[in-house]
């Protein structure tokens, strides 16, 4: 069987499945090599891959990686408007650039190009953002019918069972599902309820105890990320900010600096999340309650990779949810998240609880996470 040497079992299984028409949902841990599946597929003769990714930084990273591998690639996201490669290769798009672009030529180009595979990277975004914030995401399954792409690969590290069921129902048969969610076994999670007036001191004392090991301080807003970065630099800590309010060039520069190992603390919003693969980061602190368990799992998945012992600290208070948009649906989610944080526990119990929630035996109700 071609392309099976040196692959992990889930990667080899996925590549075998992609040799015939059909649709594949692949759930595998952050940093486990999900991208290698479509990279190997794109190296096969006669293949044309449409890669949709929800974040501009991810689109750029994938494009750079594919070029290094010698695979023809074109980028149509984040201000780039390249048409698909002339024949074999990968066309990297954001959903909005493809389906709502200014020229509105995306579908016409697809019909002419006739991709053999649709890849949806970080597909949990459809469930997390699609209905309310980015409705264009919910139109992606339609591409399998018009222009009629015969294969699709849906990649994620975090997809709860209700979301997997909804995704399966939206795809034409046959649909297969492989892999499972798993946080690193070496990751220890600590959840602490801390009132707002004590938050800054709790975060700072925890962060100082973790230094000089490098890690991430997640904040819910861009302004808080900037303020924390300035505060840490004032205290002699090598810190930088990272968020979507920065320009594309500023974010790319920040990623290069993080990769050098110079940075001790990345002060970031959730923009420093999906696709950020820095194996040397050993800890993360969430200064406020994550809005969802999916957000929490994505943040925790940034650290403790490649066998390193990782630590995740979640500081929260029910008042944190006032930061986020308020409507009936969000209020319900926040009530459920409050119950989930209270039930989550710490250490190995918290890791097991999250593994259960995102696993096949999970409950659809986050308040019953334990």
Residues in β-strands, percent: 15-25%
**Any low-confidence stretches, pLDDT <50, length ≥5?**
360-370
In the CATH hierarchy, the architecture of the largest domain is 3-Layer(aba) Sandwich
Helix content: 25-40%
CATH topology of the largest domain: Rossmann fold
Q: H/E series, N to C?
A: HEHEHEEHHEHEHEEHEHEHEEHEHH
SS summary, helix count: 13
| Average of pLDDT | 84
Q: What is the number of domains?
A: 2
Distance between the termini: 42 Å
* The CATH class of the largest domain: Alpha Beta
CATH homologous superfamily designation of the largest domain? P-loop containing nucleotide triphosphate hydrolases
The total count of strands amounts to 13
Strand line-up in the sheet with most strands = 3-4-2-5-6-1-7
How many strands, which pairing sense, and closed or not: the largest β-sheet?
7 strands, parallel
Cα radius of gyration in angstroms? 20 Å
- Structure class: alpha/beta
User: What form results from the Cα inertia axes?
Assistant: globular
Write the layout of secondary structure elements.
Elements: H1 9-17, E1 22-27, H2 35-42, E2 48-52, H3 56-68, E3 73-76, E4 89-93, H4 95-100, H5 106-113, E5 117-120, H6 124-129, E6 151-156, H7 161-170, E7 175-179, E8 187-193, H8 196-210, E9 215-218, H9 222-234, E10 239-242, H10 248-260, E11 265-268, E12 283-286, H11 293-300, E13 310-316, H12 328-344, H13 348-358
Parallel strand pairs: 1-6, 1-7, 2-4, 2-5, 3-4, 5-6, 8-13, 9-11, 9-12, 10-11, 12-13
Helix pairs in contact: 1-2
């Amino acid at each position: 069987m071609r392309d099976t040497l040196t692959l992990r079992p889930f990667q080899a299984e996925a590549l075998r499945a992609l040799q015939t028409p059909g649709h594949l949902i692949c759930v595998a841990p952050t940093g486990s090599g999900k991208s290698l599946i479509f990279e190997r597929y794109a190296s096969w003769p006669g293949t044309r891959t449409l890669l949709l990714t929800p974040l501009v930084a991810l689109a750029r990273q994938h494009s750079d990686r594919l070029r290094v591998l010698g695979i023809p690639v074109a980028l149509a996201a984040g201000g780039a408007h390249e048409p698909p490669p002339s024949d074999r290769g990968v066309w990297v798009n954001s959903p909005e650039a493809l389906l709502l672009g200014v020229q509105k030529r995306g579908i016409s180009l697809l019909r002419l190009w006739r991709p053999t595979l649709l890849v949806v990277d970080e597909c949990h975004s459809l469930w997390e953002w699609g209905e309310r914030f980015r409705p264009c995401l919910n139109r992606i399954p339609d591409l399998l019918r018009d222009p009629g792409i015969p294969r699709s690969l849906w990649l994620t590290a975090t997809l709860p069972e209700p979301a997997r069921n909804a995704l399966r129902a939206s795809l034409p048969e046959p649909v297969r599902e492989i892999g499972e969610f798993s946080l690193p076994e070496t990751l220890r999670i600590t959840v602490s309820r801390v009132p707002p007036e004590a938050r800054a001191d709790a975060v700072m004392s925890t962060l100082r105890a973790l230094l000089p090991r490098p890690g991430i301080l997640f904040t819910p807003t861009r302004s808080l990320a900037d303020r924390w970065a300035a505060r840490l630099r004032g205290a002699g800590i090598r810190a930088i900010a990272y968020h979507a309010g920065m320009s594309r060039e500023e974010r790319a520069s920040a990623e290069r600096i993080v990769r050098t190992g110079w940075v001790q603390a990345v002060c970031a919003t959730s923009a420093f999340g999906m696709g950020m693969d820095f194996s040397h980061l050993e800890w993360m602190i969430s200064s406020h309650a994550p809005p969802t368990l999916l957000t929490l799992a994505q943040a925790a998945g940034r650290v403790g990779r490649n066998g390193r012992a990782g630590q995740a600290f979640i500081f929260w208070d029910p008042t944190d949810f006032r930061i986020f948009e308020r409507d009936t649906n969000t209020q319900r989610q926040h009530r459920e998240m409050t119950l989930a944080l209270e039930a989550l526990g710490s250490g190995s119990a918290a890791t097991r609880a999250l593994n259960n929630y995102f696993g096949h035996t999970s409950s659809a109700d986050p308040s019953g996470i334990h």
